[in-house]
Specification:
The complex is a heterodimer.
Chain A (H helix, E strand, L loop, with lengths): L6 H4 L14 E10 L4 H12 L2 E11 L4 E10 L1 H13 L3 E6 H4 L2 E12 L3 H12 L3 E5 L3 E8 L1 H11 L4 E6 L3 E4 L6
Antiparallel strand pairs in A: 1-3, 1-4, 2-3, 5-7, 5-8, 5-9, 6-7
Chain B lengths: L2 H11 L6 E3 H11 L4 E4 L6 H9 L5 E4 L3 H15 L3 E5 L3 H15 L4 E7 L15 H5 L5 E4 L3 H16 L5 E7 H5 L1 E3 L19 H12 L4 E5 L1 H5 L2 H14 L3 E3 L14 E4 L6 H9 L2 E5 L5 H4 L10 E6 L13 E4 L2 H14 L6 H15 L15 H13 L5 E5 L3 H9 L8 E2 L10 H11 L4 E7 L10 H6 L5 E6 L4 H10 L15 H8 L2 E5 L5 H10 L4 E6 L34
Helix pairs in contact in B: 2-3, 2-7, 4-5, 4-18, 9-14, 11-14, 12-15, 16-17, 16-22
Classes of the chains: A alpha+beta, B alpha/beta.
Bound molecules: thiamine diphosphate.
The site of thiamine diphosphate (TPP) has 19 residues of chain B, from α17 and α20.
């Protein structure tokens, strides 16, 4: 966020900076939408149009009979911004339900990544060893390359990718976060 | 294409299904079933099948041919705002749709219910950069409440019905239906409107009872309360205005309103403080700043109202009634949020106030009103009149005098600028739906087409567009529409030869550097009116005003009154943007205003 600067003294048609300096935090939102053309663009456009951040986004049809899709968005902002994001999403005509999993209670978040590592000799052996520690499965292999499949939290995948970097990391494809609440509750 | 083959196939089975209609027929039937009486539109290749149906249904549905699609949407806005019904516009694909974008955005920001039908290239050409193809749903997604790309003729009737439901329910707004031409030709069955309850979109309108109780208790204990009302009261229908009047009178509290809310409470009433905000009255803004309980009904804490948010009404508990949950806590944190329709919330508040036999704190209210009356003595709207030059404020006072004495209902529209603010300050609105102005978007060029839409809805009424010389040029072509449909709208141009509001900011905030704000090469508005087939009048001196206004009100044709006003008059009071309510500039202080800060 831009902070106060002396330029605000110069032109009086400039707005005063916001008085709120709250801490930013990350929230995982589960959004059930009607599966219709343009619905993802509506949600994404809302974030770009209002200057909100998206850290991760996944979407797929989840209920064929009801024709609904589930969008999982990880976004960050101050508590006021997160409240606004949720309120704005709820206003979208195509949105059926919104739940903030972060405030709702215990929930599980998982991401899947496919990681290609190219190398030989010691590095190749080390990559395989670390993959084993992370329970990443080799899905494809040549004499000089591996493609690993790894699932876990965003942090776990970040850590794995970081470790693969010096060992010949070539390519990463990540799904983004899928999330669901624990226990009996559903959204 | 295989359309001819499809036609043959259809004709073979057609006799068995007499209810089959073309997409275009379905659209017109759906509009009629939705109670649409007037469509404002402009034809083109991609909507010709719909125009064909309009041709066949002139007895059931009127079409007003505007001169530019932007005019169609503003006209539909004027129609909607002055009737409380959903306005309807019809435009062709490509440039027709892109011309409509300003009006759609305007309607979105001011919560005006509209349905805008756009033609689109045939389904099989979408995505090929076909002639007059534009990604209309993509372009209009952020400037509509909702939009649709029609997928089949079969779904068309339901789509139109749903569009009207979405436009008018919850926080009203514009809805676009983009209709490919092949779907307008295709045959399908018509479906009648579903009952409201069967629609998918069901926004919350009933207030939470506990929140109402808490709000009313807060009101009963208030020492310095103020009602701050907005366009939401107008949108909730005449009943909401009636309930507001009851509640304000029973509590004895002062009331102010936003630009969009004028008319919900009578401006001639003694509890009325005048409009608030950037060009609001001294008493309204100070009451907002110093109050201990603020009751916001249907307003959205817009930056033109709050000024600097961290200094906005620092000592008050705030109640906020809004049908749009996302308006609550967006700009200003409130203590009691109530998501509800304004009429329902007002009714619930009145019930609790009466049931609990609440009375406002008498002595507190007395000193609060004493304070307010002290602020009133500032007489913040005063101006120095002149014998030789027409002061814009004086012109509007004269206009007010004449319209007050006119037996007809008066509807005022405006363009955007100083004249708009003066109109808000000096004309008195005592009824809802009589004031049509572009508040949220501030769209120059809104007023004339909006007046046309308003006059279509109220043929016998007096409809006046209070205009500026720069704004009126933005949609001047619509005079031709007014002439064609014999709409006797009056265009009252406060001609100061400047983009006055821009000039004012440049004077006060940009070191008197008047960059491109002089309206050079203006037309002769009298001759212009005559060239269009209307009547042109001009007032050059204060003494001309009576004659010109009287004459203007008498004419039965579209009339321009070119009022040559003081060129460098500024609009006060003024809160420079980003300043607090109590940092307002009043006209006598204007000279003391420190321009060196710029
Ligand atoms: C479409 C559009 N463009 C630009 C502006 C910025 N703007 C606001 S007021 C104004 C000047 C209006 O001048 P005029 O219509 O003569 O009215 P006055 O202020 O002189 O009464 C301008 C350019 C706007 N509001 N709308």
């Amino acid at each position: 966020m831009t902070k106060t600067s002396s330029t605000s003294k110069k032109s009086q048609s400039v707005y005063a900076p916001s008085a709120l300096h709250e801490e930013s935090s990350s929230h995982t939102l589960a959004i059930v939408v009607n599966n219709e053309p343009g619905v993802l663009a509506r949600i994404v456009g809302l974030f770009t149009g209002r200057g909100y951040n998206i850290d991760s986004l996944t979407v797929a049809e989840t209920n064929h009979e009801e024709n609904t899709s589930r969008i999982t968005i990880v976004c960050s902002g101050t508590p006021a911004v997160i409240e606004q994001i949720k309120a704005q999403i709820k206003q979208v005509v195509s949105v059926k339900r919104v739940r903030d999993l972060t405030t709702f209670g215990p929930h599980i978040e998982r991401e899947l990544a496919l990681v290609k590592v190219i190398g030989s000799g010691e590095k190749r052996i080390e990559a395989l060893r670390i993959a084993d520690v992370f329970r990443a499965r080799p899905l494809d292999s040549t004499l000089e390359s591996f493609v690993f499949e790894i699932t876990g939290t965003t942090e776990k995948i970040d850590a794995f990718v970081a470790l693969m970097k010096p060992l010949g990391l070539k390519d990463v494809s990540r799904t983004g976060v899928a999330a669901i609440s624990r226990g009996l509750h559903s959204i | 294409m295989s359309t001819s083959k499809a036609k043959q196939d259809a004709s073979k089975t057609a006799p068995k299904k007499p209810a089959q209609m073309s997409g275009a027929e379905i659209i017109i039937k759906a509009l009629i079933d939705q109670g649409v009486e007037v469509i404002f539109g402009y034809p083109g290749g991609a909507v010709l099948p719909i125009y064909d149906e309009i041709f066949k249904n002139t007895d059931k549905i009127k079409h007003v041919l505007v001169r530019q699609e932007g005019g169609a949407v503003h006209a539909a806005e004027g129609y909607a705002r002055s009737t409380g019904k959903v306005g309807c516009a019809l435009v062709t694909s490509g440039p027709g749709a892109t011309n409509a974008v300003t009006g759609l955005t305007d309607a979105l920001l001011d919560s005006i219910p509209l349905v805008c039908l756009c033609g689109q290239v045939p389904t099989f050409l979408i995505g090929t950069d076909a002639f007059q193809e534009a990604d209309t749903t993509g372009i209009t997604r952020p400037c509509t409440k909702h939009n649709y790309l029609a997928q089949s003729a079969e779904a068309l009737a339901d789509t139109v019905h749903e569009a009207f439901h979405v436009a008018r329910t919850g926080r009203p707004g514009p809805v676009v239906i983009d209709i490919p031409k092949d779907i307008q030709f295709a045959k399908a069955t018509y479906h009648a409107p579903k009952p409201q309850a069967a629609q998918n979109y069901q926004p919350k309108t009933t207030p939470d009872a506990a929140a109402i109780e808490a709000a009313v208790e807060l009101m009963a204990n208030a020492k310095r309360p103020v009602f701050y009302t907005g366009g939401g009261v107008i949108n909730a229908g005449p009943e909401a205005s009636a309930l507001l009047r009851e509640l304000v009178r029973e509590t004895g509290f002062p009331i102010t309103s936003t630009l969009m809310g004028l008319g919900a409470y009578p401006a001639t009433d003694k509890q009325w403080l005048g409009m608030l905000g950037m060009h609001g009255t001294f008493e309204a803004n100070w009451a907002m700043h110093d109050c201990d309980v603020m009751i916001n009904i249907g307003a959205r804490f817009d930056d033109r109202v709050t000024g600097r948010t961290d200094k906005f009404s620092p000592d008050s508990h705030k109640i906020h009634v809004d049908i749009d949950a996302s308006s609550i806590n967006k700009n200003i944190r409130v203590d009691i949020p109530i998501v509800a329709d304004a009429a329902q919330a007002l009714r619930a508040m009145l019930e609790v106030w009466r049931a609990r036999k609440y009375k406002a704190d008498k002595s507190a209210m007395e000193s609060w009103w004493n304070q307010i009356n002290k602020w009133r003595t500032k007489n913040c709207l005063r101006y120095t009149n002149s014998k030789t030059v027409i002061k814009p404020q004086f012109a509007l006072e004269k206009l007010r005098e004449y319209t007050n004495n006119d037996p007809r209902e008066t509807y005022i529209t405006t363009e955007v600028g100083q004249h708009q603010m003066w109109a808000a300050q000096f004309l008195e609105f005592n009824e809802p739906n009589r004031w049509m102005t572009s508040g949220g978007l501030g769209t120059m060029g809104y007023g004339l087409p909006a007046a046309i839409g308003t006059q279509m809805a109220h043929p016998g009424a007096l409809v006046i567009d209070v205009a500026g010389d720069a704004s009126i040029m933005m949609n001047i072509q619509e005079i031709s529409t007014a002439v064609q449909y014999k709409l006797p709208v009056k265009i009252f141009i406060m001609n100061n030869h400047w983009m006055g509001m821009v000039r004012q900011w440049q004077e006060l905030l940009h070191g008197e550097r008047y960059s491109n704000s002089y309206t050079e090469s203006l037309p002769d508005f009298v001759k212009l009116a005559e060239a269009f087939g209307g009547i042109g009048l001009r007032a050059e001196k204060p003494d001309d005003l009576d004659k010109v206004i009287a004459e203007m009100l008498k004419t039965d044709r579209v009339t321009i009154a070119d009022i040559c006003v003081e060129q460098t008059e500024n609009c006060f009071p003024m809160i420079p943007s980003g300043k607090a309510h109590n940092e307002m500039i009043l006209s006598p202080d204007a000279d003391k205003f420190d321009k060196s800060l710029v």
